[in-house]
Amino acid sequence: MARRKQIYEGKAKVLFEGPEAGTIVQYFKDDATAFNGGKKGTITGKGVLNNRISEYLFQKLNEIGIPTHFIRRLNMREQLVREVEIIPLEVVVRNTAAGSLSNRFGIPEGTQLPRSIVEYYYKKDELNDPLVSEEHITAFGWATVQELDELLAMALRINDYLSGLFLGIGIRLVDFKLEFGRLTHENGEIQIVLADEISPDNCRLWDLKTNEKMDKDRFRRDLGSVEEAYQEVARRLGILPESGPGDMPGPATMQ
Ligand SMILES: Nc1ncnc2c1ncn2[C@@H]1O[C@H](COP(=O)(O)OP(=O)(O)OP(=O)(O)O)[C@@H](O)[C@H]1O
Ligand SMILES: [Mg+2]
To answer: How close is the Cα of 129 to the center of ligand 1, in Å?
Structure first.
């Protein structure tokens, strides 16, 4: 198995050069961070579960016509994706008050929002990913007005679809974070596509009946049973083999 050239190491994933130009391999680590790296830890098996959960959700989104970077899963911890130029925004969609929204406005966690709210954060660790308005985004050139229109429409469709999907397995999609990128096609056309990952690392998922948290808040808030919660999400999605994530099959050879 030829060693791939590492392009970038982030907090949750490592990016390697892919087998073909314009592709990269996302390797999902077990490392967990919170509060912009202020809290660090390991969640055993998280990388395997997030790789599988994100694969499943991206495939579902592809099926309903959301363009994404996802090509295919390679093995337990790696997936092949199209390389994009990441738009430096975290696009957060909220259905229920929680986390920073609750803190900022004094709205108790769990309050149903009158409608879904989309927020943009500028991806800049040194600045703690500040909340920004559309004015900032277009004035500073992080995205054009047209790109923003497009990614907003996609974010809302993704929210509608995923809210229903999770509802069907007894989970409330409280909020989640998306990243988008610019994909350059061979004919030079540039398309906005969904990139990065969707997993319990960047969604708030609450059990519909008990409101129990099934996401990274268990790590952030030291609630315990973090791996079990991620496993339960995978199990309800129907993608966790009975014997656990260690037995999840991947292709025998990597191409
Ligand atoms: N298709 C893609 N092409 C290029 N870069 C991508 C693609 N999908 C995701 N990325 C980037 O790969 C990195 C994934 O690593 P990880 O999630 O660990 O980063 P992170 O620690 O959250 O840091 P940051 O997102 O601030 O760089 C992110 O920087 C993400 O924006
Ligand atoms: Mg990330």
So the answer is: 14
